[in-house]
Amino acid sequence: MSSAGSTTMSRSTETVVMQTLSALSIMASVPPLALHWKNRNFPAGSLVGWYILLSLFNIINAFIWPTDDLDNWWDGVGLCDIQVKLLVASYVAVPGCLVCIFRSLACVLDTSRTTLVPSKRQRWRNRVVETMFCVVIPIVAALLHMIYQGNRYFIFAISGCVSGLDESWVSLALGYIWPLVIFLIAGYYCGLVLLRLRRYRNQFNEIIRAANSGLSKSRFLRLFFLSFVMVIAITPVQIYVVYVQIEASLPWHAFSFSNIHGGGHLWSQITKVPTQGKVFYDRWIPIAAGFMTFVFFGCGKDASRIYRAALRPFGLDRCFSPIQTSSTGSFPRDGSGSTSSRAQLISGNKNQKAPQDLYHASRISDHGYNDVEKGVSPSTSGSSGQSSKKGWLKTHLTWFGRSFPARREAMRSAPHLAIPSNTISTNAWAGTSTTMSRDSIEIELMPPRTDLIRVKQVIRQEREMQV
């Protein structure tokens, strides 16, 4: 036996690499699949499920036909009959899932049709569209394959079962043109999402919050970018497939159903093809898609909850510590709620001996420039007037600088301010600085006009910078 034949008859490195990566891709795809199933995202879950199935085929076929030893090959009867139909279905199911994903994202950004609660008709319409692209069209494609099926199937070394096509125009019209057409439809909805993202980029958070779609900003963007990468990467491959199939089948012969499916004709023919240790090119697509899915959906806080739940029976849930998140959740909130809460906490102090003008100064409106009149900071009971001014300026410089972590920290500690040991409330317009403690309230008059004018100028400048 020659060295070339010896190489062909042994398991190639590419075979081992493909099997290993396929197994890792399946493992990496399980958490995103569970996450989409939990969120009832049928198109995204179907997309991940199809890629898991294709990766599983890679592992099985490489074990059954690992080398070019054609004489000892199993003919694959039964297994390849099923695999070929599932492969044909997957060719249109993957772009169909992407169409549904992009369509749902485009509907979220459709401000002209935003409703508080989707109507029953809208829900049924979405279900029909998703079922049609993810289930019905793939089944129809698998059934139509029997019409233009040139032979029973091909068996490639390592790659396994591959569908056969009749060299006629019917194969183009019913077969390999439709994956490209559906990818172009997905590309249209992808462009629509990009257009609306650009148009509503300033109101994006508000639109996502009001859409009542169950998507957070992070989940929306991750789902969009994952689908966007798949469309950009696979559409050129589909164009290449159509070109190669047309070039290989020309010149087309006249289509005859009886010649293909008649007794003793091509219908029952099984063709075995050696590959010299090479893997069929499209077998790498589900592997790459599985890892991409994990990158976008397997590393977030939602996935970490799944990991902890799975490892909790073994006592290993601490390996994935809970991710600390702020109370703002997925969307940033405006400062009105926190300002109102803090004003109410200060005005609700047990010390009711404060003068009436100071009481009104502590109950400041959420809207307007009155937010700058109130400073809240802890201090000692013996602090001087100069330290009070520094604390006031520091508080408001932090506020206008939008130090959100500081504001979140203040919100977390807000319940402890119900009976503060020391609270400083400064009313710049009244020209007084009031120090309130548990036992006493001291009122000290500030210099009559100079400091008042200076404070007004500082506040006015800060307001102009903010605008």
TrEMBL record:
One GO MF term: mating-type factor pheromone receptor activity
Signal peptide: none
This protein's GO CC annotations: plasma membrane
Top-rank taxon: Eukaryota
Regions crossing the membrane: 16-35, 47-66, 86-108, 128-148, 168-195, 223-243, 284-300
Native source organism of the sequence: Aspergillus puulaauensis
UniProt membrane topology term: Multi-pass membrane protein
Family: Belongs to the G-protein coupled receptor 4 family.
Record InterPro entries: GPCR_STE3
Gene for this chain: STE3
Protein name: A-factor receptor
Segments of this protein annotated with the region Disordered: 327-356, 370-390
Record has Transmembrane helix as a keyword: yes
Compartments, record wording: Membrane
Pfam families given in the database record: STE3
Regions of compositional bias (Low complexity) in chain numbering: 375-390
Comp. bias regions, Polar residues: 327-354
Keyword terms: G-protein coupled receptor, Membrane, Pheromone response, Receptor, Transducer, Transmembrane, Transmembrane helix
